[in-house]
Please model this.
Amino acid sequence: MPLSEQEIAGLRQHARQLRQDILDVTFWAGGAHIGGALSIVEILVLLYYKYLSIDPKNPEKEDRDRFILSKGHAGVGFAALLARKGYFDFELLKDFNKFNSPFGMHLDKHKVPGLDASTGSLGHGLPMAVGLALGARLQKRQWLTYCLLGDGECNEGSIWEAAMAAAHYKLTNLITFVDRNRFSVDGNTEDVMALEPFADKWRSFGFIVHEVDGHSYTELSRAIEAAMKEKAAPVLIMAHTVKGKGVDFMEGDVRWHYGGLDSDTLAKTKQSLASTAKD
Amino acid sequence: MAEGLTWNVYDANTMTQADIYGDVLCLLGEKYDRIVGLSADLAKSTKIGKFAEKYPHRFFNAGIAEQNMFGMAAGLALSGLVPVVSTMAVFTTMRAAEQVRTDICYQNLDVKIIATHGGISFGQAGTTHQCTEDIAIMRSMANMTVVVPADGIECGNAVIACIEHPGPVYIRIGRGFEPTCYENDTYGFEIGKSVEIVPGSDITLICCGITVLQAREAAQILKKTDGLSVRVINMHTIKPLDAEAVRKAIAETRRIITFEDHNIYGGLGSAVAEVIAESGKACAFTRVGIPDCYSLVGYPEDLYHHYKFDADGIVGKVREVMGKDFEEDENWEDGF
Model:
């Protein structure tokens, strides 16, 4: 069912909050992967406020949907989202990255409630998601497994090993996203190690691909609902995004892949967010 | 040991090590419906194929893609299942080392690994398929338990025990054609607890895997020809190591040799050396294994002989170490 205007307004509100949180936690943490955390905000918000069947009061609930953040370096945003969903107190994030904190830049499932897998090393999330989806099918569980990949991460061979397996086992209870923000650490993905024709690569591996604007709730929602109904092959949602989305001077600038914020810069980011919000 | 499993040792004596674990897994599959099997196009060679034949819907062939296979195993474990993964030791511990470490050990998941073709048991295949580093690698991963069974019967015992043992377990076996050491499975196998298979007071041989049987034979020869009382310990669990058995050997025999089908660095010998060094007691000590090189090509029996961990080699090493002095504390002022 298409999202209502009211739903979209609510999601936008959550996204604005999450972007502010990402910047605040980055300030407290002394540095974080800001660019790639800002590019996935709409995907995370839509999944966690609309589609995932989860219960923050019972994080280990057996029949919950699973979500694996394969691009684990976006943990700064994911942790903030989980806090706002009520898995733990947001104030705890003030210790992000600090000595013996439960929160480091790549999140640990033994320390962070709401996390279905520890990630951080690229290329590991999709294989685990394939295992989760296979496990669900074998045990006749109805829950879905969602996996969010970075685009640069798809240079890893293990992603394509897992893609082969997902198609081989016809895992239609697995929904995979690629955050196609076009940058990895060293620059544009097409200069570092070309991924294009990227969607065709997934198609040739046996996926049904939906290419969407990764900041459009309407487009993302349409693709997710199509994926939920798909019975022929696993679905990949290629979400075209902007790295650093929402902060004008960070957008599309690879220097903000990872960075720290002093109080002046933090204030500037907040101004930028506020002006974008008026659009 | 898992209750309700019956195991016919008479069959075991005529079966290969790998066949036995395949059969044991099939039996365990009946008892535990959470067990699933995985291999990477080596179901037949590793004998996990027996489980695959009996439970086709509970077996997943990952194809020749070990990194994805161990990631998938982690995901299956996260979904509440107990994956048993079997492929060659070299691909488990090196090709997929990071998946084993980060996906399985870091998350402390119930994934049980049966790694075949360990050491130089597949000597004729050359260095690419030999694996003399795996014990060192697996031992350094927190949460991992490392077991090197002496033979097929002990492998069966280890596979049964690992299912109920929490967390990841690495069971390292040979190619599967190794001779049997034990006559039955009732000697009291327990993960982390070594077995003194020959009592003795002059020297202790601490062994794992195929060297256990060879050391037992060597002890018999040395008793007859040299009148030596040689203790043989089957240290089937390398981690957690039975340090108490090592300390007892230091105190009671003051001479220790380790024998393993593995590089002398990082494996059983190193684990035992750590205990000896920390004990503060003087002890004549030598490690025997692959002397930090890539093994020659050849059939395993010829290689074991060449690297001196067959019975003949062990006899020679014992005589050498019996002639070696260890200094009592009061003699230490003269330096080395």
Q: What stands out?
A: The interface with chain A takes residues 36, 57-58, 60, 62-63, 65, 67-81, 83, 98-99, 102-103, 106-108 of chain B (CB under 8 Å). Residues 1-10 of chain B have pLDDT under 50 and may be disordered.
